[in-house]
Structure prediction request, 345 residues.
Amino acid sequence: MSNPPLEPSTTKPVPVVLDVDTGVDDALALMMAVRHPALDVRAITCVAGNADVDQVVTNSLAVLDVLDAPDVPVARGAAQPLLEVARDARHVHGADGLGAQGLPASSRTPFAGGALELLRMTILDSPEPVTLVPLAPMTNLALLLRAYPEVKDNLAGIIAMGGAAEGGNATAVAEFNVWHDPEAAAIVLGSGVPVTLYGLDVFSQVVVEAETYEALRQDPDPAVALAGRLLAHSHEVIRSDPRVGHGGLIGDAGAVCAVAEPGLITTHRWPVHVALAPGLTRGQTVVDRRYVLGEDAVHGVDSLGHLVDVAVGIDAEATRDLFLTTIGAGPQASHADDTARAVQR
Ligand code: BDR
Ligand code: CA
Prediction:
């Protein structure tokens, strides 16, 4: 089932700030956020992750130009994680972080005051509480919450792409955004601000198949065509994964879909602990999924975790269709996917 075309919302759009490491799927997330009528993108802040922070700024500005969104301020943030050195993900996102799309460099300059000041100002100046959407290592957010804890009073919450209950991607147990800066993630999860983790468990389920993204590539709207090329890039990277290799992932854009339509995901509130010790488990989000008291509680040992709403399920097809409809591709092509799958069964 596809969603009907989007009607202009009668309620006030939700103010959001995206913190990104653009990034193939961050670019898709920017498209989703800028084009969804229920979201009011107040700022974009950049951090080292998929690429170095200057490249992330370059990419984010270039994507916003394709989207014809010149009024959304963009700021450069942390170049390094809190304790370690930056490690990029060029094996996934290409040397330039965007799969070599060759986008023209933007003539815009980033906000001169930097990411922390843009975040502080945007949050404190907003008449309505702001939702933060980190889609990258949480270095900027951790620095913000330590430097300006007063911002917490005007935050509606944080919906982060990060972590996993089951298995990792950067390592066997750690998801890339948390693994890249585990201390930052631990600070954000322990900040007292309500956090929802849109982790790998749901992130890896929303796929756009080849027939659809090939059609997007031919679209006269440059942003839709770019989405088609980015999804094709994603497909190349994950093709050998039997669970998702039948198409390209919308990735971070799924977290933005969940901000626009929270009913797309189901969550469970569990204690989550970020493993910080050096070694195999560093960066793992240990999700305590027990429903009855464990030995530790019986013996009076404190749980190490912070209560977090962990996304445990997603309506993947509705999320894909919301994404396609929102960016302007319409849901028609996704019907072809459904038909193709039905025929294969
Ligand atoms: C996350 O890591 C990055 O490579 C993606 O942009 C996404 O935010 C997935 O682990
Ligand atoms: Ca990202």
In short: The CA atoms of residues 46 and 329 lie 27 Å apart. Residues 1-5, 332-345 have pLDDT under 50 and may be disordered. DSSP finds 14 helices and eleven strands in the chain. Residues 21, 23, 25-26, 49-50, 135-136, 252 surround calcium ion (ligand 2) (CB under 6 Å).
